[in-house]
Amino acid sequence: MFVDEIEIFVKGGDGGAGCISFRREKYVPYGGPDGGDGGAGGSVWLEADPSLTTLLDYHYKRHYRAERGIHGKGANRHGASGDDLTLRVPVGTVVTDRDSGEMLGDLATPGQRLLAQSGAPGGRGNARFASSTNRAPRRADLGQPGDGRWLRLELKLLADVGVIGFPNAGKSTLVSRVSAARPKIADYPFTTLQPSLGIVRVDVDRSFVIADLPGLIPGAAEGKGLGHQFLRHTERTRLLLHVLDLDPQTGRDPLDDLRVIDEELARYSASLAERPQIIVPNKIDLPEAAARLKTVERFGAAHDLPVVPISAATGQGIAELIRAVATALESTGWVRAAS
Ligand SMILES: Nc1nc2c(ncn2[C@@H]2O[C@H](COP(=O)(O)OP(=O)(O)OP(=O)(O)O)[C@@H](O)[C@H]2O)c(=O)[nH]1
Ligand SMILES: [Mg+2]
Questions:
Q1: pLDDT surpassing 70 at residue 232
Q2: Which of 175, 179, 182, 185 has most ligand 1 atoms within 8 Å of its beta carbon, as the pocket-test mutant?
């Protein structure tokens, strides 16, 4: 999974000290205690801000502290509380306490706030310690020091486009060709064990996030193979690239593969079965692939399905595919600024 991750230290503001003071008035000897309380320290908040797309700012500055409370004063004047500090993070940031591992929150909706560290209380002034037996208390509390802790911030990107297909079809090869993601590629099934995400640049101001997924096999919806646990990653995509393996050595028929995987999707979720798809026959560089490609293209034409043949290995057809994805995403009302 494509994760932007950073650790920051947050500290609540120190509490202001309480004050020791006695009332002084002309002709009134022994005025009572009138030291005010210290103000509380400010708290540190995190807030989800939809205008941010990365945690980059936090790579440069790691320590954050809220303002301290003001000390109390005489004449029962309490100190002002310190201001809160609000740190803006991108929507989708997950916050955990680094040392305890406790998950503190998932800032999933714009404007959502999370109290990362509360400020320390202020100390009591000596006016608070007056009693019938001690009418002139010479005692006040110091403000408490603000607590601090390390937070781990993780930004989880959601994919716009999911790449599905049988194991070994060339999904990871495709994703590594169109994005900076470097998933493992190898000539055996189930090479990809974890989904990974990459960002695909369409042009200067448009990009989309693509998810490489573990291969699917018949029975995936019931948990066979690895695909099942990752199908949920496709649930929030807007478009699926259905990669078909044209290599005759598979011993399978690409149209059978297409049908079988579509059935698995439908078994898993009805809405997933209706997700728009682009059929991507892969490995057209292989000489034996031509005949198989023909049958796929005929099928696509007959069912009004977009087919964009590629060779993920040589790069043939890749530019056409990116254009087709951008067009398809646009028709779903997708807008994502390039990042
Ligand atoms: N000839 C040829 N081989 C390809 C092409 N694309 C991928 N391959 C090869 O196919 C094999 C599988 O590629 P991967 O990208 O790992 O396949 P995958 O779909 O991600 O596989 P899993 O992660 O196991 O589901 C590798 O040996 C690739 O080199 C292609 O366009 N042409
Ligand atoms: Mg793979």
A1: no
A2: 185
CA of 87 to the centre of ligand 2 (A): 37
H-helix or E-strand spanning residue 175: helix 171-178
User: Tokens for 237?
Assistant: 């995509």
Question: What percent of the chain lies above the pLDDT cut of 70?
Answer: 91
Q: In angstroms, what is the span from residue 195 Cα to ligand 2's centroid? A: 9
Q: How far is residue 329 from each of residues 130, 310, 336, measured CA to CA in Å? A: 71, 19, 10
**Whether the Cβ atoms of residue 186 and residue 261 lie closer than 8 Å to each other:** no
Nearest CA to ligand 1 atom 11: 187
Write the DSSP string, 218-251: TTGGGT-TTHHHHHHHHTT-SEEEEEEE--GGG-
Q: Between 140 and 224, whose confidence is greater?
A: 140
Yes or no: say if 113 and 134 are a contact pair by the CB < 8 Å rule. no
Closest alpha carbon to 193 in 227, 169, 241? 227
| CA–CA distance, 192 with 184 (Å, rounded to integer) | 7
How much distance in Å is there from the Cα of 212 to the middle of ligand 2? 7
Its sign, for the CA torsion 336, 229, 306, 294, is: positive
Ligand 1: lining residues by beta carbon, under 6 Å: 165, 167-173, 185-187, 189-192, 214-215, 282-283, 285-286, 311-313
**In residues, how long is the chain?**
339
Res. 226 pLDDT band, cuts 50 70 90: low
Handedness of CA 111, 339, 315, 168 (dihedral sign): negative
Average pLDDT over residues 78-97: 94
Residue 50 has pLDDT above 80, yes or no: no
List the beta bridge partners of residue 150.
9
pLDDT-above-90 percentage for the chain: 61
What gap in Å lies between CA 254 and CA 258, rounded to an integer?
A: 6
Atom index in ligand 1 nearest the CA of residue 311 equals 31
Ligand nearest to the CA of 312: 1
Q: If you search the block for the tokens 């990009």, which residue do you land on?
A: 207
Give the ligand whose atoms come closest to the C-alpha of residue 168: 1
Q: Report d(CA 46, CA 154) in Å as an integer.
A: 13
